[in-house]
Write the C-alpha cells for this entry.
Amino acid sequence: MRLEGKVALVTGGGSGIGRAICVAFAREGASVAVNDIRAEAIEETIRSLGEGGARALPVAADVADSSAVRKMFASILARYGTIDILVNNAGIGGIGEISGQGEIDRMNRIAEAQFQEMAAGGPIKTRWEVTQTLDDGVFERMLRVHLFGTFYCTREALKEMEKKGSGRIVNISSVAGTSGLEGAPHYSAAKAGILGFTRSVAREVGLAGVTVNAIAPGFIETPMTDPLSPVVKQMWTMNTPLKKSGKPEDIAAAALYLASEDGRFVTGQVLSPNGGWWMP
C-alpha cells in the first residue's frame, strides 16, 4: 500500500498505459481520478480497479483545452480536497489518429517497403516524405494534446502541490523524444518537448517538495500501437536487445516507483523502459 491515502490524477487513463497505471495506483491504496476524452473508456477503467473503483472519480476532459483542465481540477478538489500525484499520460499516436486509417496504412506500407529493401541487401529507395506533406492542423493537434496538455495539467496541479509543500508529477514521453522516430516528426517533437519541460519544472519546484520526472517507453503493446502492421512490429522487436515488446504494466511499475516514497530522491530524470532499444 505504497500510495495509501494519496490522491492521483492519471490523464489518458481510459486504455493502455494509462489504464495500467490507474490499476497499479489503486492497488497500492490511492484514490484515482481517471481522465480520458471518452467517458465510456473511463468507466471501463474504473470497473477494472476492483475495490479501488469505489474511491475513483471519472473526469472526462480534453487536456488540450485549458478551460476543460481547470474544470477537471475543480472537480478533483471538490471530491478529494487535494491532489498528491499527477501522471500526464494523455496522448495520440500519430497521423492516423487525427487524419484517419488511410494515413496509418500509408505509414505501414512505407515501413514494410523499407524493410523488404533492406532485407534484399538494399539500397533503400522508399522515402517517408512525411515532414514535407504534414498538415498544419495535424502538427498543432499533436503538440496541443501532448505538450500543451502536460503544461495545462501541471500548472493546475502545482497550485495545490506547491501550497502544501509536496507532490509527484510523472510525465509520459517516449523514445521518440529521446532518439527521434522517422516518419513521426510531430510526435517526436511533442515528446522531446515534454522532456525539456520536465527538467525545467523539476528545477523550479524542488524547493517546494515536488518531484517531476519523465518516463520514455519503448515499443509497448497498447491500442495505440495495434494499427501497426506485423512487419513494423517485428522491426521494432528485432532492434530491441531483449527481442520483445513491452507491456503497459512495465510502464505502470516505473510510474509507481516515481510516484511513491521509493522515488523521493529522484527528480528531473528520464526513466526509459524500452528493452534496450535506446541506450543514451
Summary: The longest helix spans residues 136-164.
